Amino acid sequence: MSTGSLRIGVLALQGDTREHLAALREAGVDAITVRRRSELDSVDALIIPGGESTTMTHLLREFELLEPLRARLAEGMPAYGSCAGMILLASEILDAGSVGREAAPLKAMDMTVRRNAFGRQVDSFEGDIEFEGLDDPVHAVFIRAPWVERVGPDVKVLARADGHIVAVRQGRVLATAFHPEITGDRRVHRLFVDIVTGNA
Ligand code: GLN
């Protein structure tokens, strides 16, 4: 598939949707917001933005998107999640939130993610980290960020911060605990587009 014929959605229930749309458009992709079932059905791939995973879970249920999204991911739709999006893509979430208001795993990647893991130490920090496959380090911004505590055998670790896993890929699913969408560096989005088109 060529980049020009691609349509990638950004889940737009809550969070930093606009920044992801801009990053995708700069990468030459037709990017749309996804709030409805028909929009979800029309995209080749989906980004789940940063925000608040418990609120997004609540809204996914309200908008009747939770099960359709799980189904599309189970069928192999490529996806990228940043921060809250990483949490939701996991198969298991630790510290998922208060009872009745937990973040629900979409189970697109075989990994255990701890929500607000860095947040317990420091709310927000940034730094340059090595990212597998990219020549120069990525400037990574962490905001009440999760980390990955366990990965399954098919998950490739792409980056670590302070020894903790913060970027992963399993097949056509990518996740970062940080927010490349807000730094203007488009390499992670370009990597995702290459994953979707089968060029990475
Ligand atoms: N702590 C948030 C959550 O639990 C994630 C923070 C973020 O996306 N910047 O969803």
From TrEMBL:
Q: Which GO terms describe its cellular component?
A: cytosol; glutaminase complex
Question: Which residues are listed for L-glutamine binding in this entry?
Answer: 51-53, 115, 143-144
Catalytic residue list: 83, 179, 181
- Extract one GO molecular function annotation from the record: pyridoxal 5'-phosphate synthase (glutamine hydrolysing) activity
**Which InterPro entries does the entry mention?**
Class_I_gatase-like, PdxT/SNO, PdxT/SNO_CS
Recite the UniProt keywords alphabetically.
Glutamine amidotransferase, Hydrolase, Lyase, Pyridoxal phosphate
**EC number(s) from the headed UniProt entry:** 4.3.3.6, 3.5.1.2
So, what pathway does this thing act in?
Answer: Cofactor biosynthesis; pyridoxal 5'-phosphate biosynthesis
Catalytic function, reaction form:
aldehydo-D-ribose 5-phosphate + D-glyceraldehyde 3-phosphate + L-glutamine = pyridoxal 5'-phosphate + L-glutamate + phosphate + 3 H2O + H(+); L-glutamine + H2O = L-glutamate + NH4(+)
State the source organism's domain of life: Bacteria
What NCBIfam families has UniProt attached to this entry? Answer: PLP_synth_Pdx2
- Note the subunit structure: In the presence of PdxS, forms a dodecamer of heterodimers. Only shows activity in the heterodimer.
Q: What does this protein do?
A: Catalyzes the hydrolysis of glutamine to glutamate and ammonia as part of the biosynthesis of pyridoxal 5'-phosphate. The resulting ammonia molecule is channeled to the active site of PdxS.
As for family, the record states:
Belongs to the glutaminase PdxT/SNO family.
User: HAMAP family from the entry?
Assistant: PdxT
Q: What is this protein called?
A: Pyridoxal 5'-phosphate synthase subunit PdxT
